[in-house]
Request: fold
Amino acid sequence: MVRALWSAATGMIAQQNNVDTIANNLANVNTTGYKTETNEFKSLLYQTIQTRTTTANGETKPISAQVGLGVRNSSITSQFTQGSMIASESDTAFAINGKGFFSVQGDDGKVYYTRNGNFGWAIGAGGAMTLTTSDGNPVKSSTGANVILPAGYIANKIVVDANGKIMYPDANNNLQQVNGLQIGLYQFQNAGGLDKVGDSMYEVTAASGVALNEATNAALDDSEVRQGYLENSNVQVADEMVNLIVAQRAYEMNSKAIQAADDMMSQANQLRR
Reply:
C-alpha cells in the first residue's frame, strides 16, 4: 500500500506537468512560429517481489513477479511540423515554407534562431535601414552579417524572393538584388534538440548540432520565404482539448488510487480494536 501511495503520487506529478504543457500549447495557439510541445513519459524502477523459483527443486518461473514504482516525465518534445500560412498586410512579414529557421542576434550578442518572421526596418544613422525583429534585434543574412540597406531605399518597394534575396527595382523597374544581400536560412540535424529560450527563440545545443546554412550547403532541401505571410502555430486545438481531458482523468485516477490506499491503511490500523 505504501508503494501504491508513492506510485500514484508520481502519476499525479507527471500528469500535472502534462497539463502544464497542454496549457502552454493552448496559450500559444496564435503565437507566430510556435511549435506544439508533447510530453513524454517513462516508467520508474521495478521491484522484484518474488524470487525466480517457486519450487523446492529450484525450477525457474517462466514469468517474473515485479511491481512498478511509478512514472516520470522523460522529455517535452517540440513538433516542428509546418504551420499554416496567414496573410499579412505588412511588407516585412515573412513565413518559411520548409525546415529552415531565421537567424537573429539577441540582446546579449548571441545568435538565436526563430520561425517568427514578423520583422521590420529600423532606421539608423545616416538613413541606413536594418532588418530587425519586432523587439529590435537584427536579423542575420546568409553570410552571418546584419541585413543592412544603405540610405536612399524606400521600404515599401523592397521585395524578398523565395530564396530570401533582397530585391529592389532599378531605373527600368526591373528587380535587382541589393549588394548581394540574402536573408539567412538555417537548418539543424536534430531540431528537437534546440533549447527554447522564450520569445519564440531557440538556441543551439550539442543535441541539435551546429546550424547548417542553406545558402552554402547543397545537401539541404532549400526552404522558401513567403513575403506578406506569417506562419501560424501548428497547435491543433481539438487534439489539445482531447489530450487535456485524458490528462485530467489520469490525474483523477491517480488521486483515487491514493485515496484507496489510504482507506486500506485505515482499515488495517483499526483491526487491533
About this structure: The chain has a mean pLDDT of 91. The helical segments are 2-27, 237-269.
